[in-house]
From TrEMBL:
Zinc recorded as keyword: yes
Residues the entry annotates as binding NADP(+): A156, W172, T198, D202
Gene3D superfamilies hit by this protein: Cytidine Deaminase, domain 2, Dihydrofolate Reductase, subunit A
Catalytic residues identified in the record: E54 (proton donor)
Organism name: Puniceibacterium sediminis
Cofactor(s) this protein cannot do without: Zn(2+)
Catalytic activity entry: 5-amino-6-(5-phospho-D-ribitylamino)uracil + NADP(+) = 5-amino-6-(5-phospho-D-ribosylamino)uracil + NADPH + H(+); 2,5-diamino-6-hydroxy-4-(5-phosphoribosylamino)-pyrimidine + H2O + H(+) = 5-amino-6-(5-phospho-D-ribosylamino)uracil + NH4(+)
Function: Converts 2,5-diamino-6-(ribosylamino)-4(3h)-pyrimidinone 5'-phosphate into 5-amino-6-(ribosylamino)-2,4(1h,3h)-pyrimidinedione 5'-phosphate.
One annotated GO molecular function: 5-amino-6-(5-phosphoribosylamino)uracil reductase activity
The protein, known as: Riboflavin biosynthesis protein RibD
Co-factor binding comment: Binds 1 zinc ion.
Listed pathway(s): Cofactor biosynthesis; riboflavin biosynthesis; 5-amino-6-(D-ribitylamino)uracil from GTP: step 3/4; Cofactor biosynthesis; riboflavin biosynthesis; 5-amino-6-(D-ribitylamino)uracil from GTP: step 2/4
Amino acid sequence: MSEPDLRHMAHALSLGRRGMGRCWPNPAVGCVIVSQNRIVGRGWTQPGGRPHGEVVALAQAGPAARGATAYVTLEPCAHHGQTPPCAQALIDAGVARVVAAIEDTDPRVSGQGFAMLRAAGIEVTTGVMATEAAEDHAGFFLATDHGRPFVTLKLASSFDGRIATASGESRWITGPEARHLVHGIRARHDAVMVGAGTARADDPALTVRGFGHRVQPVRVVVSRLIDLPLMGQLARTAREIPVWICHGPDAPSEIRKAWTGLGATLIPCALHGRQVDAASVLSGLGKAGLTRVFCEGGGTLAATLLAADLVDELVGFTAGIAIGAEGRPGIGAMGIGRLAQAPRFDLIETRAVGADVMHRWQRKV
């Protein structure tokens, strides 16, 4: 791989990330068009998933796209959906070469976009920064291949792993810098998800704040009986910012009608014992189009997701404060008797954020 190919693909990946959390159910694709060592077009998937990154970049490049090289973070689509295929748009624009990071796993595209380009005489190079692209598109691939979104579980805790005192006080364990970063991570996800206990105890807004006007993530609450405050923030704002409630089959009909009347979307889920089944929740969210979900607890929901092996990434913020054994643990009971039964993750990043430490972990492959 040449140094220019790596540099331009890194640029395309950074552009693609601008679409994260805004373009579901479509992938957040970035595209850079280069002619004679000069960038003539840049684009990324727009809010709602249209137009695609390639189309935006081609429109910016105009006639300069002819004979140019297009760097794309995912195989250009080959099927007719709401818009014509991007592979055809690249052909019609007269690009001479396409450099793609990774092949699309969507059966409507997989390999066919590359085949269209090659059949038109365009040189195709693949596999440039494929590992980074696979991480960026992991949610889209999971939704396409397994019918569920990518799940990031976030925990902000004391040094001894507590998320609140015994009385429930939790604001604020971590500092303002960590909280600002959490809002930035929320912004890169399609939805923010919490359990019923957190929704009742904290009355959270679950919105992205501190980043100006932007598309807000869907607010998801997992609540078997929908026993949530009808005068809380989520209820009051459900018509302005989407609220989806994943509930059990035994949720009272009058409560369902009340929340539907407030503007919430209800997603019926199966039960696993006395709790809403985690796999059923994610399947329902996947069918609704979500590709990336940011779970912010509480402890019961965190334990349920971990026990079901449905957490893809852990993000922890640890503060230099000790609360003690009487404090509330960040993760509820999981019934683990031996260490070999415990889910393990690989550390991929650690850094100081203000007075706290952020650590990020990926599921072991």
